[in-house]
Amino acid sequence: MTDYKTISGGVTAPNGFQAAGIVAGLKASHQPDLSLIYSESSAIAAGVFTTSQVRAACVDYCRQQLEKQASAQAILCNSGQANAATGQQGWDDAVETAQLLAQTLKIDPTSVLLASTGVIGQRMAMPEFRAGIPPLVEALSETGGNAAAQAILTTDLVTKTIALETTFDDRPVRIGGMAKGSGMIHPNMATMLAFVTCDAAVSTSLWQEMVQRAAQRSFNQITVDGDTSTNDCLLALANGQSRTPAITEPGEKAEKLEAMLTAVCQHLAKAIARDGEGATCLIEVEVTGAPDETAAQQVAKTIAGSSLVKSAIFGRDPNWGRIAAAAGRAGVPFEQENLQVKLGNFLLLKDGQPVEFDRAAASDYLQQAAKGTYLEADTVTITVDLGSGEGSGKAWGCDLSYDYVRINAEYTT
Amino acid sequence: MTDYKTISGGVTAPNGFQAAGIVAGLKASHQPDLSLIYSESSAIAAGVFTTSQVRAACVDYCRQQLEKQASAQAILCNSGQANAATGQQGWDDAVETAQLLAQTLKIDPTSVLLASTGVIGQRMAMPEFRAGIPPLVEALSETGGNAAAQAILTTDLVTKTIALETTFDDRPVRIGGMAKGSGMIHPNMATMLAFVTCDAAVSTSLWQEMVQRAAQRSFNQITVDGDTSTNDCLLALANGQSRTPAITEPGEKAEKLEAMLTAVCQHLAKAIARDGEGATCLIEVEVTGAPDETAAQQVAKTIAGSSLVKSAIFGRDPNWGRIAAAAGRAGVPFEQENLQVKLGNFLLLKDGQPVEFDRAAASDYLQQAAKGTYLEADTVTITVDLGSGEGSGKAWGCDLSYDYVRINAEYTT
Fold this sequence. Notes:
Number of helices of chain A: 11
Number of domains of chain A: 2
Protein name (chains A, B): Arginine biosynthesis bifunctional protein ArgJ
Distance between the termini of chain A: 47 Å
CATH class of the largest domain in chain A: Alpha Beta
Largest sheet of chain A: 9 strands, mixed
Structural class of chain A: alpha+beta
Oligomer: homodimer
Shape of chain A: globular
Helix content of chain A: 25-40%
Enzyme class (chains A, B): transferase
Strand content of chain A: 25-35%
InterPro entries (chains A, B): Arg_biosynth_ArgJ, ArgJ-like_dom_sf, ArgJ_beta_C
Keywords (chains A, B): Acyltransferase, Amino-acid biosynthesis, Arginine biosynthesis, Autocatalytic cleavage, Cytoplasm, Multifunctional enzyme, Transferase
Pfam family, one (chains A, B): ArgJ
CATH topology of the largest domain in chain A: L-amino peptidase D-ALA esterase/amidase
């Protein structure tokens, strides 16, 4: 299932996609703040959105668009203002930006999807936004993936992009992606945005199902501090420009495409968790022996989200008690006599009871992770077997450090 | 409904209760570690226990006892070891301590309830425990409430006790309580234990219902870091020694008793939240305008538990965005156009949109709370109206400080 390779280019790696990112002046910092992904032909589109009752105008806009038609040609994203808690004015601004972009691109306004991230409760900097659209379109390029990825960042420390390639009938098929993560932004919301491009030819319904499942196995399984944003969204376009035969039925090719899509989403999700505010390492939790995948994911996410587990990892403390306690409160039934907990290769708990282990070596394992390089050696692995079924699932988080508190306490609205 | 007054004495304030707390040597620190509450006559008993799948032996023991008979005469609690993740040996130890205490008190072993808090995965210090029981019984006294409250603490900074008194037919009726809180303990679990004594005469079924409801409106509505312990429990005894007529039906007297019981539980719950690790203030969240009380409680608890809200309060930042975002993701449907948020007396959000407010004064309000005295001036109040119904509910938490991370990161197993 993993016969794909990593390539460069991010969202512009797949055929027929262009992208751009520019400084339009929406951010006081004069960092890039306007980002565009453009497909040269109409692409099928799928979206996954925040479940919050408090939603940004762009989220409502995309949901409405995608209910009407499951296709799009452009994704316009700004950073600087989130366009949330902005009422009717915010909605009008969203509609206007979509129309302006459509005019400039000479496409139908219904082919434009929108995303925003930044300060909530403030109106978008519309003069700058309006003035920025022509140069943004002008900057579109087949190598613009990284510029686009830059322009969606807020307090993220690094850009988050990935592209994978496989072959169908000896022709390359590619999926690219970019995301922004959990760096909070004035006035401080954890917004996760992810955009995926794909040049496979695939039916709308299959693509939508794949995107839903991939999101469930990636973005929905990361946790930095348990807060959900008003603006969270994943938008995924597939434009068929690989010129490979259309995938319209479940089967080997669909599975191969979904595996690659899931890998793209998991890469971006892990990059977001790794870049969690103040984080020194990525925590990967794998749960096996659960009644089903959903139950396993639930337990994994509860462990990855536990403040006690997170601060123990930051303290380089091989604390099986906190891991077991988090598993126990996750709402999934299991027999504690069957519980097994591993930290890296160290078996800490077996049959629900602690076992002897080399505490210094286990602490050293945690210490080393904090010194690892980005997304390579810096992953702490927690493996939990519930001994109560065949279901397995993963979740990702990061440790809880002094810097998390500093960033979120000292950043005054 | 609030015609009761605060009195001294804690769990020994109600008639016919004695208590004791001693140093038995279960803790390396030689702090008090063995606690006993004793009713001179058999009392009806109700319990509320952790919902975790990973439970201490004492929790399973109490649940079994209370399923067999809803009465008890003694509650034996040790601190130092939690007797969780200890397997069959832990169960046998629990049974032995109950039997030893029953022998010494000359009561039936089935009249003994058990609680433990401390290190998990370690066997209780049985030689010290055995040797401690005779002097513990010897120390029983009608003024022993505070000593008992001391002996259940772990890393708590203060004891948590309360006693309230009202009159039924011109005779005093009292409820006392003590609790330990969210100070974590080596190897670090947030255990909440609470014990309530009452000298009213009340039917078993009414008492059990009252205790369940009071727990739901107090202990189940506090959050320090979202972690649930293996040992959490509330045990409540009512021995009828006030010699007032038995309350056997719902009605005015039952309501009066329940109001007092709820007040006792809320006092203890707030004391636990206020003593959260590293906390500088108590956060009280009141939600109104929800579909029902449960929905209101859910939203309140989500806000009180949000790491972003908690760190904003620590940073003295009147951050309505984080409060609105937490409300939005609580799983309760509402129209964002109706959302209203107040911080103290400052209106921050109205009709889902930010309003002008005196930012410096609001920040000062938060600053003052941190300087308040214990459970008096140090409460930050967040009031949220969802505008979607008549339900209201409260939750309590504390701010998230550097010290939380320090305590939980640097405490090595």
